[in-house]
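Me: Here is a favour to ask of a fellow structure person. Could you put it straight underneath, so I can go through it closely?

Assistant:
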Amino acid sequence: MEKQITSSDSKNVLLKMEGICKDFPGVKALDNVSLTVRAGTVHALMGENGAGKSTLMKCLFGVYNKDSGHIYLEGKEINFKTSKEALENGVAMVHQELNQALKRNVMDNMWLGRFPKISKWCPLTSEKKMYDATKEVFEELEVHVDPKMVMSKMPVSQRQMVEIAKAVSFHSKVIVFDEPTSSLTEEEVEHLFRIINMLRDRGCGIIYISHKMEEILRISDDVTIMRDGQWVAMILFICMTLEGMILHHLNYQRHDSMYIFLIPLMYYLFNYLIEKSESSDKKIRNIATSIYIFHPLCIVAVRFMAGIIGLEKIFIKNNLILYITVCLGTLIFSILIERIKEVVINERKIKEQSMD
């Protein structure tokens, strides 16, 4: 039974995925993930390897059956069981791993499963119609490939462009590009971006999966960031910065920022108590100052080292452990700095005394 989206905010929403979950044996690939794609926009999907980006798109495209959640296309709930069903209903996907018939020519791969017939009375395949249709799509996209060339004789970059042209040939409303520039040259990347801009101008919704920040900043209107099969953040173009995407990508959450602001408060409180006391310990004040200065850097350093030794997930799940580790790290670091300063000052005094 089809459901309708009646919200007034959904007028420009082309695709909406809500609460998508997908389990594989021993692994929760997707955990309550949501995605909203507006018509006439490029929506980037970011995340580390294993974040669940491709799995989410395969649930949309009918490669996988989702375990729970809802998918709406133009306000109507859909649940494609096969990729053929998705293509017939306006959803196309350019996969990262090319799956082509390498012994067949380009136009055979373009129209596989939908070969044009000579006429409705003659069910034989029309080579001329297939050639002309392929040339028409290639000319529109400025793809310079011979439709009769065998796929195995072509470089990977040209095969990728054929796959992109095939997706466009379905006149889809939503097109997913999964790491499309991984095998393209710089010139071909520029060509791809022209194609994407053309599709955006037509009102298509483009989902662009990539790890390359410069590409995402250049071409995207919205960005959704995923991590460990979960939704982390959605960033609109007006709020999009490289630093912000990196912090979200690393799961640098709001409570981490709160910890950064807690340290200055602790420092000023500590400083106030020392000044109010009878004796003022300059060494302790210097250590407190060092903690204040180096604490933000230590958050990044601890996260980085945790990723190297495999303890990153422990810090993400329990930020109290992260905070305690950072505090101890900054304290030790600050004491070492104060000790080094003492040694340097003592050495200078000894030299000055020897000079006298």
